Amino acid sequence: MMALTLGLLIALAAGVLLGLLFLLALWRSLQRLPARRRPGLWMVGGMALRITLVVAVLFGIMQLGDWRHALAAVVGFTLARWLVARRIIERKDQTVREGH
Q1: pLDDT digits (tens, 9 = 90+) for 73-92
Q2: Structural domain for 88, as ranges
Q3: Which phi and psi angles does 38 have, rounded to 5°?
Q4: Do the Cβ atoms of 12 and 74 come closer than 8 Å?
Q5: Signed CA dihedral, 43, 48, 49, 55: sign only
Q6: What are the distances in angstroms from CA 42 to CA 22, 34, 38, 72?
């Protein structure tokens, strides 16, 4: 039971890390988009790479564990997205309050 719990926590942490990496890569690609000659191609290619990475990691987690580990990783990925979205909203609210 202890090994299962530890494995689920590791999968959850891996999901959070994967989600943060996905969102960081998305943010960086959006920042660089105006300088690109073919922005549509860069967006499609970048999204394909990010999705491939996520699917490969989730598949690897499922191969090492079972469906519960994959579910924990997906929950971690979603948690990372929620945390980043919340931080962005808080920054926007703070900027509005300060009058900038």
Answers
A1: 999 999 999 999 998 888 87
A2: 2-98
A3: -125, 80
A4: no
A5: positive
A6: 15, 11, 6, 31
pTM value is 0.84
Q: What is the pLDDT of residues 23-32, one digit of tens each?
A: 999 999 989 9
CB under 8 Å to 50, separation ≥6 — which residues? 22, 25, 26
Specify the amino acid at residue 56: A
CA distances from 72 to 6, 12, 16, 29, 76 (A): 11, 5, 10, 27, 6
Structure tokens at 30: 């959006």
Domain count along the chain? 1
Residue type, 70: A
Those residues whose C-beta lies under 8 Å from the C-beta of residue 84, and which sit 6 or more positions away, are 19, 20, 23
d(CA 48, CA 79) in angstroms, rounded, equals 22
How far is it, in rounded angstroms, from Cα 47 to Cα 42?
8
Residues composing the chain: 100
